[in-house]
Amino acid sequence: VDYRGKDDPDAPVGEWNTLEVISRGDTLQYLFNGKLVNEAFAVKPAFGPIGIRSSTRWPTAEVITASSLSK
Hints:
By secondary structure, this protein is an all-beta fold. It has no helices and 3 strands.
């Protein structure tokens, strides 16, 4: 059964998805396959590590990178 909608950002079956978390001060933006899917404002603390959690049984990642953005 195909439960995906026409605007679902998931990659096709068999392809990797990409999650980008962009932190600017106290704002976080979550892009899934290049599409903004969530945004958080007035985040506290506004510094420190970003944790990523998967609700699937076996979370996997091909590549995880972190980089600094210029203002």
